[in-house]
Specification:
With 142 residues, the chain is mainly α. It folds into two domains: 79 residues; 62 residues. The chain is built from five helices and no strands. The two termini are 23 Å apart.
C-alpha cells in the first residue's frame, strides 16, 4: 500500500508542477510575445481547462492520503483487472475514432483551406507515429 501512496504523491506533485509551470508559461507568453487577443483567448481556454483538471485531481487525491480506508478502496478500483481492461479497450476505441474523425475533417477541410488540411494530416501522422512507438515500447516492456 505504501507503493500506491508514493504513486499518489507523485501524481499530486506533478499536478502542482503542471499548474505552476502552466501559469508561468502563460504569463511569459503573453508578456514576451504581445500575443493578439485571439491567441490570448486560446491560451486562457487551454490553460483554464488544464488547470481545472489538475486542481480537481489534487483535491481528489489529497484526501486519499489522509484516510487509509479511502486509500484501500481507491487502490482496489485502480488495480481491478476489469477496470484496467475497460480502460485499455476504451482507449483503443477512442484512438481509432479520433483518427477517423480527423481524417474526415481533413477531407472536408481540403475543399476550403489547405493549411487546415495539412495541419489535420500532420496530426493524423503524428498520432500514428506515437501510437506505433507506444505499442513497440509496451511490447518490449511487457
Amino acid at each position: 500500500m505504501e507503493e500506491y501512496r508514493k504513486k499518489l504523491r507523485r501524481r499530486i506533485t506533478l499536478s502542482v508542477i503542471f499548474c505552476l509551470s502552466g501559469l508561468f508559461i502563460y504569463f511569459a507568453l503573453i508578456r514576451i510575445t504581445g500575443a493578439p487577443e485571439y491567441t490570448k483567448g486560446i491560451l486562457i481556454g487551454v490553460l483554464s481547462g488544464s488547470l481545472t483538471v489538475s486542481v480537481f485531481n489534487i483535491f481528489r487525491l489529497m484526501p486519499l492520503l489522509q484516510d487509509e480506508e479511502k486509500l484501500k478502496k481507491a487502490y482496489i478500483v485502480e488495480t481491478d483487472e476489469r477496470n484496467t481492461l475497460i480502460q485499455k479497450e476504451s482507449a483503443r476505441t477512442v484512438l481509432s475514432i479520433s483518427i477517423m474523425i480527423a481524417a474526415l475533417a481533413a477531407i472536408a477541410a481540403s475543399f476550403f483551406n489547405p493549411v487546415i488540411t495539412l495541419t489535420l494530416s500532420a496530426n493524423i501522422i503524428l498520432t500514428g507515429i506515437v501510437s506505433i512507438a507506444v505499442t513497440a515500447y509496451y511490447n518490449k516492456k511487457l
